[in-house]
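Q: Please design a sequence for this.
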């Protein structure tokens, strides 16, 4: 349902289980960045009223996810660490050429956001199914459901604001590009890398 071309190797969960503090830190920043992305879309594309309305709700939701993850970090007796650069996202957002019309730029940003949500959703599903810590597994199940909704929302906005056929072609090409990135990364204690 997510359209991803390369499923995550289930052994990734074993890496995660040995590094819960690292994964929660990385995850907390993913939620914070999702909120920042929503704010940035509002600032860059204020005339897209429906998008702005959805992004307002999304900022709140992603920050509530950030709080959920942050609370888990505190529950474990840890303190939120520093952010690290996200090699996955850096590689992903190099795909579409810069420039073009405002609509083109908007479509590209919506497709990047849709893909990041889709991969997060896939990884949260894996964690919800494979983690031995049942409390943490349940936590990821809840998040998985909301990220699936975000993936659909971003993709639908891209299809609504752009030319449907062109958007679908770009989405397909981006999915292939992402699979290539996951082949090179995909085995570290980070949500995406
Ligand atoms: Fe989230
Ligand atoms: Fe999200």
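A: Design:
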């Amino acid at each position: 349902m997510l359209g991803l071309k390369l499923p995550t190797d289930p052994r990734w969960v074993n890496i995660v289980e040995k590094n819960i503090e690292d994964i929660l830190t990385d995850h907390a920043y993913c939620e914070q960045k999702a909120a920042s992305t929503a704010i940035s879309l509002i600032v860059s594309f204020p005339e897209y009223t429906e998008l702005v309305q959805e992004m307002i709700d999304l900022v709140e939701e992603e920050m509530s996810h950030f709080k959920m993850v942050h609370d888990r970090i505190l529950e474990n007796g840890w303190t939120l660490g520093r952010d690290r650069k996200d090699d996955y996202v850096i590689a992903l957002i190099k795909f579409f050429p810069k420039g073009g019309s405002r609509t083109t730029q908007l479509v590209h940003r919506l497709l990047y956001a849709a893909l990041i949500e889709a991969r997060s959703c896939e990884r949260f599903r894996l964690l919800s199914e494979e983690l031995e810590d049942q409390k943490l597994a349940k936590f990821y199940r809840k998040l998985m459901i909301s990220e699936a909704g975000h993936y659909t929302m971003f993709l639908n906005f891209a299809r609504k604001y752009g030319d449907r056929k062109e958007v679908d072609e770009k989405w397909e090409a981006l999915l292939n590009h992402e699979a290539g990135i996951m082949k090179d990364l995909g085995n570290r204690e980070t949500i995406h890398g």
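Q: Thanks. Anything notable?
A: The mean pLDDT is 95. The pocket of fe (ii) ion (ligand 2) is lined by residues 34, 62, 117, 147, 150 (CB under 6 Å).
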